[in-house]
Amino acid sequence: MFSDEDTARTYLEARLWPNGAVCPTCANSDRITPRQKGFYRCNACQLDFTIRTGTIFERSHIPLHKWLYSMYLLVTARKGISSMQLAKEIGITQKSAWFMLGRLREACAGELDKLQGTVEADESFFGGKEANKHESKKLRSGRGSVGKTAVVGLRERGGRTIAYPVPNTDKENLEGAVLENVEVGTQLMTDESTSYAGIGGLFFDHDTVNHSAGEYSRGDVNTNSIESVWAVMKRGMYGVYHHASAKHLHRYVDEFTFRLNDGDVKRHTLYRLESFVEAVDGKRLTYARLIQ
């Protein structure tokens, strides 16, 4: 479908500008003059722009059809695609592929409406195991979650997922995540963590399962959906990406949640690609900001 730069550009313009070119600076669509090779001139603010301007594609030398193919690969690979593999697939350097994937993950971030229905909440930890670290890198503060980054996740049964890193898993962070992202009155299911204690009552219909006692399901009460999210995310992090620093972890989490939401395998591949394309506008990410 997208064999060269021109076909890719035409497709992107149709998706991002369904009613014609729009100036990314002043949002004017009436006083636009087409120029050569995909350039447009806004006669209102005198800006020359293309479909790349103001998106993750801005100032990239990589052809647009390679960007689209990369988006297809990322949205259809259940556990992600490494920068090494992407570089080989589209014929660029690994460094360029790494930057490209950083931009694509930036597009995956977005605000969702509050979750409703039956919502499961849980937290997980990402990072290298203490026992596997080099002697100079070991914290020597214990095992388990030591040296790892906490991620809180909320899963709407049969629906959407919200997840993001948090400083720690205390009551303030976990309860705050639920109150911020879950509609009041929702049926909430969690494990026995004391961080969720007292969140029911006036706010939610709260049920728990006691994992420490070997209880993982009691009728309809379980956290299996959000646990399956962690299973896929960890297989991708450990098997494909191998490592993500705390600085970049939020973008990796955004990538996985995007695939679970707009990139759901139940949707036709082209619909998933369209959702990805529509998410790139206003998400420009420079290399300086990516590595800061």
Task: Present the secondary structure layout.
Layout lengths: L4 H12 L15 E3 L5 E3 L4 E3 L14 H13 L6 H8 L3 H15 L9 E9 L22 E8 L4 E6 L4 H11 L5 E5 L13 E5 L7 E2 L2 E2 L1 H18 L7 H12 L8 H10 L8 H5 L1
Parallel strand pairs: 4-7, 7-8
Antiparallel strand pairs: 1-2, 2-3, 4-5, 5-6, 9-10
Question: What's the short version?
Answer:
Helices cover 36% and strands 16% of the residues. The chain is built from nine helices and ten strands. A five-stranded mixed beta sheet has the order 6-5-4-7-8, with helices on both faces. The chain has a three-stranded antiparallel beta sheet with strand order 1-2-3, with no helix packed on it.
Polypeptide structure, described:
There is one protein chain. This protein is of the alpha+beta class. It folds into 2 domains: 130 residues, no CATH class; 143 residues, Ribonuclease H-like superfamily/Ribonuclease H (Nucleotidyltransferase, domain 5). The chain contains 9 helices and 10 strands. The strands form 3 sheets. A 5-stranded mixed sheet has the order 6-5-4-7-8, with helices on both faces. Strands 1-2-3 form a 3-stranded antiparallel sheet, with no helix packed on it. A two-stranded antiparallel sheet has the order 9-10. Helix 4 crosses helix 7. The longest helix has 18 residues. It is globular, with a radius of gyration of 22 Å.
